[in-house]
Amino acid sequence: MKALVPVVLLLVACRPDSDQVVFEMQAQSFANSAWSEPENLGTAINTAANEQGPSLSGDELSLYFGSDRPGFGVTDLWVAHRACRDCPWDSPVNLGPTINTAANESGPSLSVDGHLLFFTSNRLGGPGGQDLYVSHRSDPNDDLGWEPPVALGPGVNTPANEAGAEYLQSAEDGQANFYFNRGVGGTTDLYSAAVTRSGETLGPAVRIDELSDPIALDQGATVRKDGREMFFFSSRSVSIGAVDLWTATRRSIHDPWSTPVNLGEPINSTGAEQQPSLSFDGRTLLYASSRSGSVGGTDIWMVTRSPNGQ
């Protein structure tokens, strides 16, 4: 694998449309690579409250998450910054009343280009108990510059509960660029849809049958930016804890997903692992967990991996 690295660099330098080549090389290089031991993000991020739904910016210098620490509502969206990827996190800042309400805002998810923020809310005015919203900002570096959010169209939001947004901007030529979960009561399934940057849905969402257990909660999908690797959390059988993190892959965005596989220990524990979020380079997986060593009810934890041969 090491001998291929200069070839990839040459392609990137010489071909402006080489993203697909890089994605294919990335998919191969991560095959069978091991994850590190889970690391708690520490008290700069985690508190005695619940911290959940992490999402890193493309440069990994901003971290968005939901927390029920004191704010505007039951759960608010917050953002923390750091000066470099190895630097400590600064104290988180509430995103303010443009995004947060007296209701529950959670599950933030940033687009690759940093201009869009998707999240879940049960605020008044939506068609269901929980619905998905999107906010736009002109400056991708202004973490407090978000415009008033707009509810996604009826192809996504319904009288059921929708949550777990994941917007995929660069997955070949596939029609589905948006992933989420929908459900009522004790079962929740994973869906995909085509969504415009303004939140308009281009037709109804489609249930991802091969990833949806008929009697379990399947939620919180996060997808590698080439669209070929997914992580989500589920209460399906053969779990280590109440809910575990699972993964599935596919050869291309036109193929069905493989049978999901439990990520196993040490990522999963006898606690609850949930709301995974994969960094845009595919190396870092953040998630919420109530495992031993957590500061609050649920904390944000991190694992990393390196491409094989590095």
What's the arrangement of secondary structure elements?
Blueprint: H1 5-14, H2 19-30, E1 39-40, E2 51-56, E3 62-67, E4 76-81, E5 93-94, E6 105-110, E7 116-121, E8 131-136, E9 150-151, E10 161-167, E11 178-184, E12 187-193, E13 206-207, E14 218-223, E15 229-234, E16 244-249, E17 261-262, E18 273-278, E19 284-289, E20 299-304
Antiparallel strand pairs: 1-20, 2-3, 3-4, 4-5, 6-7, 7-8, 8-9, 10-11, 11-12, 12-13, 14-15, 15-16, 16-17, 18-19, 19-20
From the alpha-carbon coordinates, what is the Rg to the nearest angstrom?
A: 18 Å
Number of helices: 2
Q: Class by helix and strand content?
A: mainly beta
Question: Largest beta sheet, briefly?
Answer: 4 strands, antiparallel
Describe the strand arrangement of the main beta sheet, using strand numbers. Answer: 1-20-19-18
Beginning-to-end CA distance, first to last residue: 9 Å
Shape: globular
CATH level 3 topology? Neuraminidase
* CATH C-level category: Mainly Beta
- Number of extended strands: 20
Mean pLDDT: 88
Domains counted in the coordinates: how many?
1
- The CATH H-level superfamily is TolB, C-terminal domain
Description:
With 310 residues, the chain is mostly beta strands. The chain has one domain (32-304): TolB, C-terminal domain (Neuraminidase, 6 Propeller). It contains two helices and 20 strands. It has a four-stranded antiparallel β-sheet, with no helix packed on it. The chain has a four-stranded antiparallel β-sheet with strand order 2-3-4-5, with no helix packed on it. A hairpin with a 2-residue loop joins strand 11 and strand 12 (187-193). The longest helix is centred in the first third of the chain and has 12 residues, at 19-30. Mean pLDDT is 88; it is low at 1-25.
